[in-house]
């Protein structure tokens, strides 16, 4: 159980300027350049990180390649890898509060959510893939008697993982855990404003027994370090979570270099559809609020478009407004806060610009829409709800990535499907109905990687997460994630 006094002991702990983690140790960037790290809690600079360039990335790739070719991890027995990964998970759990507070100081996520979504989720993810190591088999092809056809699964080599700032440990583990389980070496490029917890994680990886050079973390500007990783001729795979604009650049970099495989988990504008026959309106209201406002809306699967059947639209919206007023927005390291800070000043300004644009477009601002807690120096925004939104408005089409909800009315099932699919994105969705047949029809009709029914969120590591359309390709989580980090090799043996 979290205790405020334990959090307070860590909230102002001095953090020395951070170096890159390459091999098994902290290494300064070759240029010596650093980036200040300021906290969205109070806007103050509290440490610095190394600003890596092409030379630093090249060193990290060289070290990762050498570790892979040496075979200390790639050729280790399944039992040995499994033992080490489980030890890694143990250490993460033992240091969970430290990791969570580091992350909150970096990105402003409320601590109640951060502790479970970040270190605890990461430990569970690592354990899940540790268990796959001695349970995933090769195949024997159905050939004629004179031939033995074997299909082997092999690690690919050097994996580059470019991680976003909103959930660096959780989303990072969705990439590095299956990559490590498959026997690869990995280089994590952390986001500029969410590097600290990943750097600490690298230390724990070495302590757990992951060999030198297998788990590396580089920090710095995306347009320099991230680009260098995506352009490198000796990186075999790039796994990226982030914006569509950056995803396009990574695809371009892969085409200009060694045609490395690229897997993209991009944005979303997820429809949350509530029909009049929803089994529990109050539960739908509560979960819909969580689906858009947790982490101040900075979640790729956020239910930012609430599509409500006309007959219950006003009742539902009023309940949303009433409950939203009870949400406490404040210091994310205070256990009494329901919502923390927006990640940066730039993101806050972007959110407020979307609010202004929506009002000008004719949307009805029902609650919120303003910056609050200015006296703290931090970046906080009221939970914001718009009604009278049409699906062609920018507020309904663009991924705001903030605590902003668009309420859109629909006439019926057919209309709901039309509105839901009228977007360039296809990451997540939800449907609330008591009609089982309708639920199945909606699941089949909505173009999204995951469709929740009578809930919003909660899909765990056992099922894949991936998008369609401009929400990306490939899948994180589940056994399917291993496909991104393994090669199939055929042995065709004449008997």
Q: Would you spell out the secondary-structure blueprint of this structure?
A:
Layout: H1 4-11, E1 20-22, E2 25-27, E3 34-38, E4 45-50, H2 54-70, H3 78-94, H4 96-107, H5 111-132, E5 139-140, E6 147-155, E7 158-162, H6 168-181, E8 185-189, H7 196-208, E9 215-218, H8 222-231, E10 237-241, H9 244-256, E11 261-265, E12 271-274, H10 281-293, E13 305-309, H11 310-324, H12 345-361, E14 364-367, E15 371-372, E16 380-381, E17 384-387, H13 394-397, E18 404-410, H14 413-421, E19 428-432, H15 436-445, E20 450-453, E21 486-494
Parallel strand pairs: 7-8, 7-10, 8-9, 10-11, 12-13, 12-19, 13-18, 17-18, 19-20
Antiparallel strand pairs: 1-2, 3-4, 5-6, 6-21, 14-17, 15-16
Helix pairs in contact: 1-4, 2-8, 3-5, 3-7, 4-5, 4-7, 5-6, 10-11
